[in-house]
Structures are given as C-alpha cells and as structure tokens.
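FAQ: What does the model actually see?

It sees only this:
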Amino acid sequence: MSLPTDPQKLQPSLPEGWNLCVHPRGWIYFHNPTLKLLTDQDIYDPELRSQLLGHAASLKSSEWEEGMELMLHVNLSGDIDFILAINHNHCVASQSPSNITGEAVQNLGHNLYQLNRYRRLYWNHLCTHPNHVPCPPRAVSDASDALIWFYTDSMLSGARSDVPFNKTECDELMKLVKEMELPCNTHSAAKTLFLSWLLREVCSFRNSQNYGCYTKKEADFRASNRSGFVPALYDRTPSSIFLPLLHVIINVLFFGLPWTYLAHVKSSFQYHGRFVGLQVRWKQYIERLVREYSHFLLVTDSGQKVNRSSFGYYGNARRAGNLYLLKSGCNDIFLSIFGERHSRRLFYVETPGQYAAN
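And it is asked to produce this:
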C-alpha cells in the first residue's frame, strides 16, 4: 500500500485559534494570537495542546499588555520545561513576565547592562521565530548605529580592534541593512531574521564588554587585566651562565637572524580579539617564510655553481684554496640574507606604528 504524497493529506487540520508559521530555514512553529502564546511543540497532539493551554491560562497571558506574548514548552510529565516572556514594543525578553512590562522596562533605564541582556534574549528569540510579527521599527537604526561604531573602532584601533566585524564585513553588512528599508522587504521574514541575528551579535559583544557599567578609566583598567599576561609565566629566560654564550652564538654565527624570526612568530600569534586577524597574520608569516626560503635556495644554488667548477683541480694547495672559496661563498650567502633581512626591517613599513618605531 502506497502512502499519499499530498502534504495536505499527511497533515491534520490546524486546531482553531492557532496559526502555523514557517521559518525561512523550513521548520514550523505555532502561534495563538488570542492567548498570546507561542510554541515549537506539536499542537496536533491533543494532550500536549491541552497542557500548553492550561499553563497559558494559569499565567493569564491573554491579559498581558499589548505587545507581550509567551513562549512555552512542556516536558513529558506536563510541567513547564521552558518559559520566555517577550515584549515586542520594547524589544526585550525574560523568563519572568514581570521583568519586561512597560513600567519595568522604563525603570531599567539606568541599568544598561541588564537591559542589554534582555535585548539579547529578545533578538535571539526573534531570530528563531521571525514570521508571526513584523520587524521592530528600531531594528534597522540599531543595526546601523552598531555597524558604524564597529567600522570606526576598526579604523581607530587597527589590528587591536576587538569588535565582532572588521571594516570589510561592516561595509557588506551596511549595504544589506540599507536594502532592508526597501518596500519589497517590508513584510519579509528573512529581513527580520537577518536583523535579529545581527543585533544578537551586537548585544553579545556588548555583554562581554560590560556595556554601560564603567567609566573610561575603569574600562581601560579592566581591559588591560583581561589580557591575562603574567610575566612570570612567559619570561622563560635561560640561566645567566649560558645567556652570554647564547647571545654570542646567535649574534655572531647567525647574524641575529633567530631573534628576527622569533619576533615574527610572536607577532603572528598575538590575539587581539578576532581570530580572523590571527589567521591572516599567520598566513602572511608562512608565505614570507616560503618566499625567503626560495630566495635562500636560489642564492645557495648560484654559489654552489660558482664553486663547483674549482673542485676539479688536484693538489693539496688547490684543494685548500677551494675550501677557502667555499667558505667565502657561504659567508657571502649569510651576509646577503642578513643584509636583506636587516634592510627589510628598517625600510619595509607594514603599519604606521612600525613606521613610527623605526
């Protein structure tokens, strides 16, 4: 016996008072405007639907002020497994309905940190349930304001900027935010989803920065402590007996090149709040090593070709002269590498800060 292929035959009729909403990713959730109730669970199950309605009635969600609604899940025993109260007028959400009423939100004006946490809960909720309500009017302006600041901070702080989006990403996101204001996107669920995701990331970043909690001096002090740098753990200097010998070996025999490579490795591994920047610096360092190794092989091969012809002669005096020529050729190779490395450090400017240091 073959099963029917028509989705209408596979799905029973929707219970009265409920609306079915389809997320842009394809999953469904259910909304009851009368009870101001929202759920991801299967309301086609009569027992489950009855439990949801009972909890909504006990919470009196239908009597909540305009713009508020209830997100509810129940477990197998029928008890509340998850509850979230949402206020679309103020773009806040909390597990306690009394925390997000209009009066409560007005009283939160001085507590920006807690208000930002409620905002993050709201945008996270709207990111997964964008269909049943229009996009909040403040979403575009809030997103635009945050992106402008991220772009500005990337310009001011450079590689040390810890904002979640760099300048290139801010440019791309700003173009999309401007397109969200077009009339064709007025009722777009994807628009609500995009702006909710963006503002959720903004709120997450601000929570990590203790947004609105400290003065500039206190914030700078906490930022310096957050780096977690403990000199005692990182300054692994050799013994004072071997340190002069080590300096002689590195500076005389190797012309100080290991110090340069060590500085490059340290700078490549410095983390300034964005893994993308760390990846780019490490990729550039690998490319530099490959390029310089290729130059080294080229110079070495040229020196070997020059000296190889002289080994065909016989005689101890001639061999001693050839060995001297070989040693001189190797010295020339090391001197050329040292000169190239030293001139690059002095004259190749990567950043304005390095230019000022030189």
